[in-house]
């Protein structure tokens, strides 16, 4: 196949799409952009400013007016990138349990999605980008040259997230993010149900997406599958 200029990777939480996207972007020399951090940033900002999370109008206004900046990591603490909201480093703040619990609700609002999708689309259309999210191939960049939907069982995804937490023990203790496996699994199942059933941009694979199940596959194996498709 011709070298894809825009690659969209969608899938549920902890399916491995961020790791795949980052490694694939490194291989191709492309920009890696995890769009989910934008929704997390808005969710954190709303909580931080005491904005009711059920007030769609106020959250839409917040999304329209917020300055969110994403840049390569400047600290070696396990972060993939630096995330700033109005100049404040919120890289770890957006991973707090309260954000995890509410990001699906915030990202379900039409106004919020429209405001952030416009920013995401503008970046994606520059090309040479690997964009990761939940609705990239269906809503943000339906014209993407290559669309991948990465899936895995809830149990496998919870195991990965739990292991990830344990490996970042010091950081997680500092940011109070240590969570038991069962709580992670329960939260993941609830989020899958919400994301897949919401009216606005539900989590689903594009009709022309390549489906890859990452159960019992490590990150390198998944990357190799995609590389074969690109370079063969």
3D architecture notes:
- By secondary structure, the protein is α/β, with parallel strands linked by helices.
- It has a single domain (6-218), classed as P-loop containing nucleotide triphosphate hydrolases (Rossmann fold, 3-Layer(aba) Sandwich), CATH 3.40.50.300.
- 50% of the residues lie in helices and 15% in strands.
- The protein is built from ten helices and eight strands.
- The chain has helices at 17-28, 36-48, 56-65, 97-107, 110-124, 136-140, 154-167, 169-174, 181-197, 219-231, and strands at residues 6-10, 31-34, 68-71, 82-85, 88-89, 129-133, 146-151, 210-213.
- The chain has a five-stranded parallel sheet. Strands 3-4-5 form a three-stranded antiparallel sheet, covered by helices on one side.
- α4 (97-107) runs parallel beside α9 (181-197).
- The longest helix is centred in the last third of the chain and has 17 residues, at 181-197.
- The mean pLDDT is 88.
